Structures are given as structure tokens and as C-alpha cells.
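$ run holo --ligand "zinc ion" --emit C-alpha cells
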Amino acid sequence: MDHSQVILLALFLPGILVVLFVVAIALPRALRDENRLASNVCVQCGCALGNSKDACPQCGAAARRR
Ligand SMILES: [Zn+2]
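-- output --
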């Protein structure tokens, strides 16, 4: 590995780490939201939405439905 490759790696590695970090944060959240949508519970707090159509009875967040 010569000097230019080391510089390239030093520039590239932080970018990869940032992308991995964002994916590690965003992906579980997206999966959780998807699970909550599928099971008819509030995406914000996980409270069962039941028959309420507009907002969560627990936290008042807008009820998201498919
Ligand atoms: Zn809620």
C-alpha cells in the first residue's frame, strides 16, 4: 500500500462509517414502524389503535394506516 492509497483510505473510511451509522439507526426504526403499521398499533408509542381512525388514543399522534 503506497502513500496515495493510504490518503484515499483515510478519506473514504469516515464516509463509510457515517453511512453504516445512518443505516444502523434508520433501518431498525423503519422495520419497527413497518411492524407497528402491520399490527394496527401507533407508530409513535406502540399503543393499540383499536377503532380510532385519526389519532392515537394514548399519545395523540396521527394514526398512520396502509
Ligand atoms: Zn401513540
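-- notes --
Helices lie at 3-38.
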